[in-house]
Amino acid sequence: MASKKPKDEPPKEEPVNIVAEEPAITDTEADDKAKVVDILLCILCDKQIRVPKCLPCLHSFCEPCLTKYVEKIIKDSPGKIEIHCPECKMMVFQTLGKLNAKSYAENLPIGTVCSTLLCEPAIEQKVCHFNDGCTREAVKWCGYCANALCFDHMDLHRQLTTMKIYHPTTDLQDATKLRFPYQKCVHHPKEDMAYFCPRDWTTTCNICGKIQHRTCYFLNKGVLQISEVAPEIKGNHTTKELDPKLDFLETESQELSDDRKRNLQRLDEQLQAGKDNISIFRKVMDEYLDEIEQNLNGELESKYEKVKSDLENEKMIIDTRLRTVKYYKLMLEAIHSKSTSLQSVTELAKLREQTESINCDIQQRKRTLKRTNLSVQPVHDLEKALPKMGSVHIKEFGRNLGLGHWSLRRSKSTLYN
Fold first, then answer.
1. Omega into 11 within 30° of 0, i.e. cis?
2. CB within 8 A of 201, min separation 6: which ones?
3. pLDDT truncated to tens, each residue of the chain (417 aa)?
4. How far is 294 from 108, CA to CA, in rounded Å?
5. What are phi and psi of 386, to 5 degrees?
6. Three-state DSSP class for 126?
7. Separation of alpha carbons 114 and 53, rounded Å
8. Per its UniProt record, what Gene3D superfamilies does this chain match (predicted)?
9. Rounded distance, CA 249 to CA 245, Å?
10. What pTM was computed for the model?
């Protein structure tokens, strides 16, 4: 199925730091808690990921958790079914027909980066992870389940797995060198994604390579077997661009998030200032004060809640992008330090595509970002304006954050530039 592995294995490096803490901003509240991004945490069960399955957005979750998550979506969506990533909310699948949640989760690609990271502590502990009660010495590693297995549970594991799903296994001490099977082409389910197009920087199957990438044969070397290009991928200039790119996107996302937070804090101050103005209006309109104050406060609170909700939604989306950028940085670090050359090709291609997508989204938000102010303004002639003595105004104005720019170059020559 795949070519032989390169003879020269990459040197063993120190374990990667799989948890990154977001940098604090200067105006944080005293009770704010540091947020973390953990590449090995399944946010659906809030536990260390097991049987990692990877969505198109590159976020990984436990296969059983994804099954339950999709089952709930199917139950709540009698018509069109749309599946969004639980972390970044990106739509990863939609259909008008029937969908089997278990089959959907099983057919997702293995989270190979998570599986590789999980095997390192398992090699050190040498304890079977098949269930919580087993304390026997582990001798095997299943890359699909991301579990260390003893001899007894290895046999049980074989009995419980289905024939249609391949569980790559190896001796526990060789777990970091495990070769995962190629993913299958979505257009040709029987074909392995065993080829790589240096010009488009994407993986492909043999058939798609001859059809969709036929022009690459004239402009470049054409599609190549992954086994041929894998040793060159990590050191390629396109791969090297991902590090500063993700650093840049992290800074951009953090800046947008901080701006939304400060705007929310100023909104609270403006709310109080508006209420103070309303109290001043009351002295002028004492006769109508009770009814007018109630109506105007209602309008103020309503518009405050609307603006607050809009700002919080914007901040939530930006924070999601920020966490995803941190997640991608950790994934890139894990690929550089722990993935085999063959494994890294597909992951790097997908990581680059998702990075460019987030870049477009962040730059678009910076161009359209507006500052929102809330104020209460009285009418000029109170006597004629009765029974309404004032109105609440929302004003938005653009704030130039300094548009950053970064674009990943697409190689138009060869992979080996």
1. no
2. 238, 349, 352, 410, 411
3. 334 444 444 444 443 344 444 444 444 443 343 355 688 889 899 888 888 888 989 899 998 999 999 999 988 887 889 999 999 889 999 888 888 998 888 888 888 888 888 888 888 888 887 776 777 888 888 878 888 888 878 877 776 666 567 777 788 887 777 766 667 777 777 777 778 887 777 888 888 887 887 777 655 667 777 777 777 777 777 778 888 888 888 888 888 888 888 888 888 888 888 888 877 776 666 766 677 777 888 888 898 898 889 888 989 988 998 999 999 888 888 888 887 777 788 888 888 888 998 899 888 888 888 888 888 777 666 666 555 656 777 777 765 555 555 554 444 333 333
4. 56
5. -60, 145
6. coil
7. 9
8. Classic Zinc Finger, Zinc/RING finger domain, C3HC4 (zinc finger)
9. 6
10. 0.66
- Scored b (16 or more CB within 10 A) or e, 119-143 reads beebeeeeebbbeeeeeeebbbbbb
The amino acid at residue 346 is T
Tokens for 326, please give them.
């941190």
Q: Rounded to whole angstroms, how far apart are CA atoms 272 and 278?
A: 10
Which of 259, 281, 270 has its CA nearest to residue 395?
270
> Which two structure tokens, joined as six digits, stand for 262?
């400060």
